[in-house]
Design a protein that fits this description.
mainly alpha
Length: 87
């Protein structure tokens, strides 16, 4: 979603999107399979004025004690208020 959005907004080219997608594919990413109650995401989204996607990122960072990297101002503000380190 991030890469496609960046391409649609003309921030990157299709070639750059493919390059970044390939680089991301080479990372040793882990899939979080722990179920999260919709009510928890709803509460975070409402409390901090976030989208459902961003509330899910915030919930994961809070639950796992991880920092997040983002340029999104609303998510950065929510992270600061919630005590999540911003990268």
């Amino acid at each position: 979603n991030l890469l496609l959005s960046a391409q649609r907004r003309k921030r990157i080219t299709a070639d750059k999107r493919r390059e970044l997608a390939a680089a991301a594919g080479a990372l040793r990413l882990k899939v979080d399979r722990e179920p999260v109650a919709i009510a928890v995401l709803d509460e975070l989204a409402a409390r901090f004025g976030l989208s459902a996607y961003d509330a899910a990122y915030l919930e994961l960072a809070l639950r796992r004690g991880l920092p997040l990297a983002t340029l999104d101002e609303a998510l950065t503000a929510a992270m600061t208020k919630a005590g999540v380190p911003v990268v």
